[in-house]
């Protein structure tokens, strides 16, 4: 299984390299998230079960290790990909990405985040069967994540179109210089050559303008509603595989900018999230100490601060089992996340995990994003 993930990671790297040639009239998005995988979340091995909404990279590889397992190399792996970036559809301009009506930027398209839906797969080694045998199972899970509604921060559209307007003015200035050269040329052959150069011209985006567009696009939304679902299969032994957990969950989130601002674009946020999950678990420990099945409801939330590259959060979830004999349990953890660069994130979690008795959890995870995501800027009027 481990070799499979290595292979997938190499394929993703080659895929991103195939698009390494720079498109001169596009803005590269270099701060997209490498989110936690729903396939991990279903199995309660993700650093955070209440995922902060974000626009995902085209491909993410995640490795996770629980310190208590006493193993030197991670045993849990996940991959997640976003078909929107892989398919590279036509018309993927900055307005379509941001969810704005290009004919009336005051109108937001709240369902624009649906196109960034992602699919994930995970392989996990963990003892999730509460029997008398202390043995890890090989678990495979698949997950799906989608943003249903996203409302941008006030001033988002104005700031974005302002930067695009700057680019248009830059192009118009360069156009005027080229057009003047054509007008001053008396030789018809040379004039036609200059006219052809103008026709074939690729209008570059200045580094400064592209950087500003990137920062605006990566603002956290004012409000977001996300839905995820996942399914898992447990390897009971080498010849027997059975359905383990199936779940669907939703998150409501709001992000409040505060403190330091960079060129009037917020970079620090107070994050408030509310979470609920329905889960069917085929392997639970009943009152008679026999394995049974039960569904459950999770209710909880997360409060955190994002300060530039660092995120600090506290997460609490109460799990209520529908069978009265199983009672309830909770997860109460602190989470630290740090973005090392545009593609690499490290996460740490510590606190109390779900279980019939107090269970300490200490996790360390790495999320590695692949891809070169870009959006086209609308062509200026050159008439």
Cα Rg: 25 Å
Shape descriptor reads elongated
- The assigned structural class equals alpha+beta
Q: Which stretches of 5+ consecutive residues score pLDDT under 50?
A: 1-23
Q: Into how many domains do the coordinates divide?
A: 1
- CATH architecture, please? Beta Barrel
Largest sheet: 12 strands, antiparallel, barrel
Strand order of the largest sheet: 2-3-6-7-8-9-12-13-14-15-16-17
Total of DSSP H or I helical runs spanning 4+ residues: 7
Classified by CATH, the class is Mainly Beta
CATH fold type: Porin
Distance between the termini: 58 Å
Query: Helices and strands, in N-to-C order?
Result: HEHEEHHEEEEHHHEEEEEEEEEEE
Q: Indicate the proportion of strand residues.
A: 35-45%
Give the overall average pLDDT: 80
Count of DSSP strands: 18
Name of the CATH homologous superfamily: monomeric porin ompg
- Please give the share of residues in helix: 10-25%
Would you mind describing this structure in some detail?
This protein has 383 residues and is an alpha+beta fold. The chain has a single domain, classed as Porin (Beta Barrel). The protein is built from seven helices and 18 strands. The protein has helices at 2-17, 38-41, 83-87, 94-98, 156-184, 188-199, 207-217, and strands at residues 26-28, 59-66, 76-81, 100-101, 104-108, 118-126, 137-151, 223-237, 240-257, 261-262, 265-266, 268-285, 291-307, 310-321, 328-339, 344-353, 359-370, 374-376. The strands form four sheets. It has a twelve-stranded antiparallel β-barrel with strand order 2-3-6-7-8-9-12-13-14-15-16-17.
């Amino acid at each position: 299984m481990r070799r499979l993930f290595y292979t997938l990671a190499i394929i993703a790297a080659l895929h991103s390299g195939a698009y390494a040639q720079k498109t001169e009239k596009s803005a590269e998005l270099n701060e997209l998230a490498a989110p936690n995988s729903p396939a991990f979340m279903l199995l309660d091995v993700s650093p955070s079960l209440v995922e902060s909404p974000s626009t995902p990279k085209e491909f993410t590889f995640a490795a996770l290790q629980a310190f208590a397992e006493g193993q030197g190399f991670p045993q849990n792996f996940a991959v997640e990909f976003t078909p929107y970036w892989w398919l590279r559809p036509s018309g993927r301009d900055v307005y379509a990405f941001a969810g704005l009506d290009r004919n009336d930027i005051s109108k937001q398209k709240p369902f624009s985040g649906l196109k960034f839906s992602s699919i994930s797969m995970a392989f996990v080694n963990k003892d999730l069967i509460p029997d008398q045998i202390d043995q890890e199972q090989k678990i495979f899970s698949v997950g799906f994540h989608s943003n249903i509604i996203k409302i941008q921060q006030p001033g988002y559209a104005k700031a974005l179109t302002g930067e695009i307007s700057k680019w248009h003015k830059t192009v118009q200035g360069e156009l005027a210089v080229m057009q003047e050269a054509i007008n001053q040329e008396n030789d018809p052959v040379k004039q036609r050559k200059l006219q052809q150069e103008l026709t074939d011209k690729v209008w570059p985006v200045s580094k400064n303008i592209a950087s500003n567009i990137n920062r605006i696009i990566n603002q956290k939304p004012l409000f977001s509603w996300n839905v995820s679902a996942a399914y898992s299969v447990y390897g009971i032994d080498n010849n027997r595989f059975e359905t383990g957990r199936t779940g669907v969950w939703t998150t409501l989130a709001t992000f409040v900018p505060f403190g330091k601002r960079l060129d009037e674009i917020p970079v620090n946020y107070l994050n408030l999230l509310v979470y609920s999950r329905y889960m069917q678990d085929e392997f639970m420990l009943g009152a008679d100490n026999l394995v049974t099945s039960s569904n459950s409801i999770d209710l909880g939330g997360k409060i955190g601060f994002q300060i530039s590259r660092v995120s600090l959060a506290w997460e609490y979830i109460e799990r209520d089992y529908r069978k009265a004999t199983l009672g309830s349990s909770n997860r109460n953890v602190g989470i630290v996340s740090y973005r090392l660069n545009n593609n690499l994130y490290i996460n740490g979690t510590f606190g109390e995990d779900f279980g019939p008795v107090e269970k300490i959890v200490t996790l360390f995870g790495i999320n590695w994003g692949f891809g070169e995501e870009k959006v086209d800027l609308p062509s200026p009027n050159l008439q």
